């Protein structure tokens, strides 16, 4: 939906005012749209684009050096009037003639044609190049009936860059026409869009479906189908575009293409990149050479969720203009640096974190290491089985990824522990390796704290002695102290400290009682279990990244629960070995 | 929601791969994040940023010349691990020391601190500047506890630009620290966000409400309140930021500020500009000088709907770095051109469409003009009363703005007609003036076609004769022919042609029958009324911008209905005058 507006009728005017205010050094508002602040040279050809509003950056956002000289900006989804177009054109004109460039829509054709007639009647030479890149809108034989969507960008850019290079009116038209002949786009939509002040979406797509070929005003496309995943969508768009290669291209292999992956509004940049990953693979797989792709919002439809893929089949001349610098509010291209001379030289610079040389542990410590490895494996097993429950607990107040993070960390920890165990590591080295791997692979706060706990314990246990109750208690106490210091959490903050502290205290008391590690751990594990359950009653400290902090009352902290689970499963393993 | 992904667990890795593929000439992926392709000079300070993913362009999108040298990219909303950070830092390092720069979140602090210790242990000088710009996160006295949000951009930029300028490690840290001391942000959220693969939003905001100060992971902020309109929101954010001016600023009047209006995801660029319009007014109203504002997505939270406003209180040094060129995938700043020498010189170039000299009409034609003006006023009245119904009809298959467009066009037409009528225009001049004004102010297809109809009729009626039935019939026939030619619509396409054609035919028959204009018009108006109703049974031609074309069966075309309404009301006026 549209969240921010004042009077809906004033939306476009206020938008243009804000747009001009934000780009004061580049854009000048005129009645009917905007022009560049820095006017073209006298006698130069100027390129005037335009269309309805609601498609930002189309059209005002594309005015600036190397692109358009002016944009007529109509009302929401409505063509600018011939009067507006004339005004913008006259403001941009420096006497060298004007090229109108716009997408093929009935209202735009009507109004741009009228404007063209009026200006011609004033003795100004005005030409028009209409963009028709949407392959869903008509079959190849009727290309002239197709709509203009994201393919407008390369056509506008070719025209604007050629005009700024001082080309003649004939040449600018020829180049823009050639660009249009070589550009193809296909889009899909997952949702409609809701215009400012409207209570209902202007159009809609059923949940879980996608409309293939739907236009940027919701024009019906080819068909609806079940929504594909990112890779599937990339493949579908690629396949269909490869069935509509411009006739001038003899063999796609070796062809050079500009690619545009466009978000129609609500699809996030991260999602575009996930799709682009597959697009890149597919284009390269077919032997195409991708030239400076654009992955961005290029032509939108308010908050519509959807994407389109454009292929711009280059020749030398068009590649030159595609790569030419541009500086507009929404599209900037610096002088493109060539590919890196020696990218491998870079990667070679990356020094992996120095692998610790595995110190061979004493026989006793190797024995302990074997038990610890088994304990880690056992912990991995219990966390695997509890992963979804931990995610559920985490989702109450957080982002629900605690179970996945624990699993990722433990898997890496076990893997590292197995490796150093095979190299005869003692308990200390094994725990340190496991802790480092856990932190490295799990990331986040929890990963870092688990890394700290295992490493602290490892440093105290060392690689020589068979750890007794006192050593273990000291190790856990050290872990607690490190976790509190680094994690800045105190008891009562509803974190794993609320389990670790009573667990450490229980082990400490066990030392005084002179009992075995197995028994001490078992008793302390019971304490830990209860402590984890008690975190139900706590409220997370304000300011932490827990959106629904208050909702978590009544639910134990997932970090506390998973620590208690690990402690419990470790206790089982110790008991088995000491029995 | 998130629409496009494959396996949710693979989302971040695939995103980074696609990101790197899209920016091959600028970005190099390394284990843990990305670095610049073009490495810093040997011995130069490098700036390494980072944080969880899901905030694009933060953080990978901000790597490039004039900004960061590398970014550690963690999992979704999770800090990168110390291992990842070390990897990125080592890959970017050229021996001149490293500045870590990141937002103040527990997980990031923990992992960046660990990475710092590890690198220092390897003899690398590493410093850290933690960004704390979110005024909602803690009171001014506890600034160090505040979170880092959109204010990260100016701090990163100050650090990166200073490093690229060859400043020492001490200097880069001092400059970044000073930047952080001078940046303040406040945000609001209207909705939560849904992570890839999740069925529920991670957090949410009640419909019609906004959460003031909510963090980019949904951290609770100050309070919830009824959502404000665009101006109200700008005022609220401005007021609160002006209550938290950095202590170093003595008087806000005359101060120079960089401003950032950031969309957290789903708020469209058009909406940002509507809000920015008011921000600009407010800042200028308080005597502040805005320096190159940024109105864009700067730090997001997937598809969260929300915005934040940042004020960056500049001194000379920071202004220099704020304006310095930058070239990253998501943030590019060209060498900023000064304000235009003579902006007025531009506006002066705009030649308004030459006002037609008003030809005085004959006495007969002036009489006819009086009737036509009254007819237009009557049409305006009927359209005013039917505006909502026309909007409702239009919303069935289109964007629901037909009533508003008709109202806008008729108001302008009546206004223009009154002016030329006062200057003794004849019927032809009056109709032409009304048609031009209608088309200019209403825009879109409908505005253009109404302009064509009135102008065609005007040309035939001329400024000398009292129009008889034959003249009127010829005028309407001309209008029909022009509309068909320019609008490219045929009878049966469910447009106003489906009314205009039978109306013209009925007038034509009336000529043969030799009846008066009043009677002829009345009969033809009945035909037009019926024809408008019959458009219920038609299907709009495929390819037009009618999203729900098929749904419109059973509903008459709004353009046909409004034409019939105008014809009807004009008939009443003619009859009154001829009776």
From TrEMBL, chains A, B:
Stretches assigned to the DhaL domain: 370-572
InterPro entries tied to this protein: DhaK_dom (IPR004006), DhaL_dom (IPR004007), DhaL_dom_sf (IPR036117), Dihydroxyacetone_Kinase (IPR050861)
BP terms from Gene Ontology: glycerol catabolic process
All residue ranges annotated as the DhaK domain in the record: 7-331
GO cellular component: cytosol
The keyword rRNA processing is assigned to this record: no
PROSITE patterns from the UniProt entry: DHAK, DHAL
GO MF terms held by the record: ATP binding; glycerone kinase activity
Swiss-Prot/TrEMBL keywords: ATP-binding, Kinase, Nucleotide-binding, Transferase
Protein name: Dak kinase
């Amino acid at each position: 939906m549209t969240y921010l507006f004042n009077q809906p009728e004033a939306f476009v005017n206020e938008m243009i005012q804000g747009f001009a205010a934000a780009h004061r050094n580049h854009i000048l508002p005129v009645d009917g749209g905007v022009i560049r602040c820095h006017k073209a040279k006298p006698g130069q050809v100027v390129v005037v684009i335009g269309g309805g509003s609601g498609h930002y950056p189309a059209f005002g956002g594309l005015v600036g050096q190397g692109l358009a000289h002016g944009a007529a900006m109509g009302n929401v989804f409505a063509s600018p009037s011939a009067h507006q177009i004339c005004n913008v054109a006259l403001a941009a004109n420096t006497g060298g003639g004007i090229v109108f460039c716009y997408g093929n829509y009935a209202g735009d054709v009507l109004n741009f044609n009228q404007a063209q007639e009026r200006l011609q009647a004033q003795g100004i030479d005005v030409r028009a190049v209409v963009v028709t890149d949407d392959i869903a809108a008509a079959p190849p034989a009727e290309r002239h009936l197709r709509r203009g969507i994201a393919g407008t960008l390369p056509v506008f850019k070719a025209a604007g860059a050629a005009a700024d290079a001082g080309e003649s009116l004939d040449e600018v038209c020829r180049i823009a026409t050639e660009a249009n002949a070589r550009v193809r786009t296909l889009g899909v939509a997952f949702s409609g869009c809701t215009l400012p002040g409207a209570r209902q979406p202007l159009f809609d797509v059923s949940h879980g479906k996608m409309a293939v070929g739907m236009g940027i005003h919701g024009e019906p496309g080819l068909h609806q189908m079940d929504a594909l995943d990112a890779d599937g969508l990339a493949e579908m768009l690629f396949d269909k575009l490869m069935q509509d290669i411009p006739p001038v291209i003899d063999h796609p292999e070796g062809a050079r293409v500009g690619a545009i992956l466009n978000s129609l509004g609500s699809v996030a940049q991260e999602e575009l990149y996930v799709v682009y990953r597959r697009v890149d693979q597919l284009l390269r797989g077919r032997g195409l050479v991708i030239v400076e792709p654009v992955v961005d919002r290029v032509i939108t439809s308010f908050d519509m969720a959807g994407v389109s893929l454009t292929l711009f089949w280059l020749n030398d001349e068009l590649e030159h203009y595609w790569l030419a610098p541009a500086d507009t509010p929404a599209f900037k291209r610096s002088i493109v640096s060539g590919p890196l001379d020696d990218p491998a030289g870079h990667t070679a610079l990356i020094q992996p974190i120095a692998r610790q040389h595995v110190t061979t542990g004493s026989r006793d410590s190797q024995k302990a290491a074997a038990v610890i490895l088994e304990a880690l494996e056992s912990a991995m097993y219990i966390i695997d089985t509890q992963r979804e429950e931990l995610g559920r607990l985490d989702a109450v107040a957080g982002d629900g990824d605690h179970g996945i993070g624990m699993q990722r960390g433990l898997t890496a920890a076990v893997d590292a522990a197995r490796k150093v165990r095979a190299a005869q590591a003692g308990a200390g080295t094994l725990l340190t390796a496991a802790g480092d791997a856990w932190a490295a692979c799990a990331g986040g706060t929890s990963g870092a704290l688990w890394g700290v706990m295992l490493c602290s314990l490892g440093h105290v246990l060392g690689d020589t002695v068979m750890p007794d109750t006192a050593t273990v208690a000291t190790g856990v106490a050290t872990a607690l102290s490190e976790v509190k210091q680094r994690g800045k959490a105190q008891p009562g903050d509803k974190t794993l400290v609320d389990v670790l502290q009573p667990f450490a205290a229980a082990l400490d008391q066990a030392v005084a009682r002179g009992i075995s590690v197995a028994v001490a751990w078992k008793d302390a594990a019971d304490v830990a279990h209860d402590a984890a359950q008690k975190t139900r009653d706590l409220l997370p400290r304000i300011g932490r990244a827990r959106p629904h902090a208050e909702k978590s009352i009544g639910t134990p902290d997932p970090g506390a629960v998973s620590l208690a689970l690990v402690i419990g499963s470790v206790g089982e393993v110790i008991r088995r070995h000491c029995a």
